[in-house]
Amino acid sequence: xxxxLLDIRGLTKAYPGVIANDDVSFALRPGEVHALLGENGAxxxxxxxxxxxxxxPDSGAMVLNNxxxxxxxxxxxxxxxVAMVFQHFSLFEALSVAENIALGMEHPPKPRDLSARIxxxxxxxxxxxxxxxxxxxxxxxxxxRVEIIxxxxxxxxxxxxxxxxxxxxxxxxxxxxxxxxxxxxxGTAILYISHKLEEIRALCDAxxxxxxxxxxxxxxxxxxxxxxxxxxxxxxxxxxxxxDATEPGDTLLAVENLSLPAVSAFGTSLKEITLQLxxxxxxxxxxxxxxxxxxxxxxxxxERRTPPGTVRFQGRDVGPEGPxxxxxxxxLSAPEERLGHAAAPDMSxxxxxxxxxxxxxxxxxxxxxxxxxARSFADDIIxxxxxxxxxxxxxxRALSGGNLQKFVIGREILQDPVVLVVNQPTWGVDAxxxxxxxxxxxxLAQNGAGVIVISQDLDELLEISDRFCALNEGRLSEPRPAxxxxxxxxxxxxxxxxxxAEAHLEELHPGAxx
Amino acid sequence: xxxxxxxxxxxxxxxxxxPIIAVILTMIAGGAMFATxxxxxxxxxxxxxxxxxxxxxxxxxxxxxxxVKAGPLILIAIGLSxxxxxxxxxxxxxxxxxxGAIAGAAFGLAFYPSxxxxxxxxxxxxxxxxxxxxxxxxxxxxxxxxxxxxxxxxLLVYVAEAMLASAATGWLRNPEGQGFPGSRNLARHxxxxxxxxxxxxxxxxxxxxxxxxxxxxxxxxxxHVLGYQIKLAGQAPRAARFSGVNPGRLIILCLGxxxxxxxxxxxxxxxxxxxxxxIDFNSGYGFTAIIVAFxxxxxxxxxxxxxxxxxxxxxxxxxxxxxxxxxxxxxxxxQGMLLFFLLALDVLSNYRVRIGRERAA
Lengths: 514, 361
Known about the structure:
The complex is a heterodimer of chains A (514) and B (361). By secondary structure, chain A is α/β, with parallel strands linked by helices. Chain A is 33% helix and 23% strand. Chain A contains 17 helices and 23 strands. In chain A, the strands form five sheets. In chain A, strands 13, 16, 19, 20, 21, 22 and 23 form a seven-stranded mixed β-sheet that branches. In chain A, strands 6-7-8-3-9-10 form a six-stranded mixed β-sheet, sandwiched between helices. Chain A has a four-stranded antiparallel β-sheet with strand order 2-1-4-5, with helices on one face. In chain A, helix 12 crosses helix 13 and helix 13 runs parallel beside helix 14. The longest helix of chain A is centred in the middle third of the chain and has 16 residues. The radius of gyration of chain A is 24 Å and the shape is globular. Chain B has a single domain, classed as ABC transporter involved in vitamin B12 uptake, BtuC, CATH 1.10.3470. Chain B has a two-stranded antiparallel sheet with strand order 1-2. At the A-B interface, helix 10, helix 11 and strand 18 of A face helix 9 and helix 10 of B.
């Protein structure tokens, strides 16, 4: 047993009203890949922010290389050999890769030397990246490589990665894991935050599980099942969403050969989208964010009008209809962005119930809003979907992400949709709430509605979809039955590893080229 | 170190009490300003806030002035509050006020010397239409050409002022006025006059219209779908579109209503307190109403009180100029302080002030 690289002893951090970390202890050896597991709000982020010098602990101590470690700011942490890749990238789109990396360095070398170093490191770790290309042109996976290389140039002893795989295709995940294993073999310790249990089982040597700020367990991920880890995380066993098999019915929604230009310079154009949705089925649409998900939702919800004949709902051309007319007919939707799109942040839950419930719930008669009916509708959503809130007068922004998501999804489901389209229904939602939402979507399909789920979470799509198709650069693939589809096949449907030369894939997995 | 922390839910207590605190702070800062000008601060403040209503000699004149001045301010501010809540910024109410006055006066004078009881209602309608059309210019340009309504509506004020000058000296000039600029006096001619409805109160049709507008706006915001859509579009434009709000229609509607009310205010003014179209007939009500709308937190009841308060500072300010020779710019600075403190304190209803060392989060 080698001496620990980083020893964390009894770290505690309290914020007004909540103890984010309560007496947290664990140790990390050099070269160890250590997972931090926990639901949203379990305290993972606070813990790594303390290690990275962004937050000061109230009490407790850290020891790095047998010396007391109290980073006052991230710069001190970096000097001690601790680097971190954040979930949200901090890159300038208008600058090149090398310029972005130089910006983060204290004493950047000459541009030519830096570019050479970047090439060298990216080659050594199998992360192909051209230092001269503009970050704005890169895919999410490539942007993450920029962040990783920025860290690697500091020769870190400890690399912290916060949910690194949420924006990657399965092939890109493979490449990332390859890099991380190589780093670990060279002695760099990795602290890996994720809630994707299968990934942790494949990658990590040890795991520390946090719940409500406390360490509730440690395990060797390879030795326990994903279900066991999930139970430790949530504190109860999770019901796997289930339903009885049903025969799909009539076609409810048909999109035919729909092409639309992008609205803005950062938008995605939709290209020849064709899809069919039948009663009682769940159609899963996978893909990395920014490949046309928002645009697809907008043409189905009615926020964007479509050319005649391209979108038919129950045989009727709904292209020229706006959101309210479509809602009245039973075509409902729930966008990805909860605050500001699906809900108005500063408005109460009652007012937010009126946002989409006007026609189907009869909340506005003769132009006047019936606030008592609206309140009882909001109360129904809160009760049936277990939304934790002081009451229906609370502002939407005061709710946690998961609770607001349950409210948004509940608001649409309780309007008894004929077709429901949801984008990222469980994004940022804790595991038990996510399971509830998935079950509600399945129940809806079982009762004869058609459901389209757009999501980045492939496990989720495989769990609840009948058919699966991929959205890549505004194109929708042919749907395939979801049962029996492997991650490998899905990855290829998603366009493989973005921006990777085939040769590199070949290098990593001899014989795996498609 | 002082820092601001966003409240999860806006504080109702602060939202209600900040206008009162802002008035008190204005009195303190304004008092200090008057003191540096060599005036007794307490006396000046008393003259501005108290004497217009209760002074034994001046009150009989200045008390009716309160409604005369507050009426147009409230009427215009109610119209503006619709747009401001939706994030549509009509800064050109002054221009719509002028065009409404010209249109209404032109209608009345076209039938001169008829004294038909139908003329005054016709003038009101002409005033509403004139203001609406003037506001449609920025509205349609914004919807169809994506221009900035702030600039267009503001610049149209100067166009309207030029129109006013040409009307007063040219096509609306009183033919019996011995060549002096200015139209016939509408207020002194039965049929075109907007009389004081109850003697000694200052109450005229325009004040009545302002009260009706307050009630209508209150119902609109509390109960009507349109009020809800206006609020939603202002707070979360994307959510509004998702909810089915048509942004273009909302722009036309909000600018149209605010233009119509400003135009009506101009008509009531020209046919009543002002009496005639003159070169400098407009007196800045359209701009002051912006302050009134914010002082009243874009809330109809708040605007009612803000309009009365603003009118009081006007009348009191004039009284202070008369009695103490306080310079007019000092009175304007005093009114500016009111808006400054109000907007500065506005932060408190959405943020909490924390004093202490910042912690990185």
